[in-house]
Amino acid sequence: MPPTESVPSGDPKTAVVIGAGITGLSAALLLSRHGVAVTVHEAEEQAGGLLAPILHEGMPLDRGSHRVHPEAHPLLLELTREAEWQWQQRSGTLVLKGRHLDYPLQPLRFLWGLGLRTVVQMGSGWLTRPKAFQQTLQWESDRQDLQDDKGFERFVIERVGRAAYQQFYEPYARKVWGIDPNDLSQSVAKQRVSTSNPAQSVFKKSERRFLYPKFGMAALIQLLRTKLEEANVNFVMGSDQAIQQTGCPIFHTGHLSDLVPDSKLHHRGLYLLHVTLPDDCLDETDTWYTPEHQFWFGRVSQPARFTSEFETPNHRVLCLEIPEGRWGPDKDFTGTIQTIMSQLHRAKIVNRPVEAKSVIQTFLPRVYPMYTRGWIQRQRQALRDVAQAGNIYCCGRQGLFLHCNMDQAVATADAAVNHWLKGGTPHEWAEHCQTFADFRVRD
User: What is the pTM of this model?
Assistant: First the structure.
């Protein structure tokens, strides 16, 4: 929706934003540009949400591997143009069957990395499926048709065969969500390391650069906070009060399930381990992807390869992402760091057996939406219930129960603000939000 200078009637000059993550701060800034007086409520004492920094070795490190892709929505860069965005050459690695493959995938290297036996198994499994070629080409359109949700397992097997499913898709799905993949929705088959459209992943040429702010993602939060303070936006930090209807619009970027507790919209969390190692045991890879079940971590990143500001003399930091999956929310991985270091060596992420110099653990609850079968109907009903409850516009990753990139989350804030500015109702917004359900995660 294009920006407009009109403001709805009622209480035209005030608005409330719930949540001070990237979505909430962006919504507040967009509202303030239209002369709206904004108050931002944040339950935590620190702004940022999933972009809030984790301090380790004196550096404000990211909560996982965050980057902005060339095809990202331009609004994020426009709102944060002072952040000294830098182009970085991408150097990702997919760890698969004992081999390191360039990621994003390159077709010939990918097939070589799989090995002849695996290629034959996968090829025969694919070719013997009825209408296999047609179904593979229709992967995206079929994935979006949730009137008859076949489930993740059946959906993938019908398109790539059981061999490919068992070797790549099933292990990663179990690692992340910790449940039987048959209980997951077919919508989970998004473009990710091991839950991706094979035609897209292997044959589509990928941009091998990315954008990253010079001083880390936390700098974006600080920049937006500074802009908002200069615009006289009011912040109420450590405020976990229930929403009070005051007549003004409320842009809610907190969890949708907090507004509709009986919606059965659940999440899995993510463990982060920031580990300090000698600098000579690592190569120049920025991110390793490890979909196989033998490794506890699903993704490992090296912050110093995202920006030189995170380089340190004689040692490097790795960020390991371990999905909650089967572990539950109370696992202490610092007590098993030797096992994890052994896995890093077995995955050839570190080039020799080495001991960690230091390690800190952070648990992030409610990161991965549990896209079980029927989730889209539950999400849509929850949004309708919110609209029925008051003048509330949900947006962002948490507010819409989405698994999306930060630029996509900001785009939903922009859409929500413009919807309200043009006189759109909460009920109309709840229906419009269906268009965001097909966001595809870029990695």
Answer: 0.88
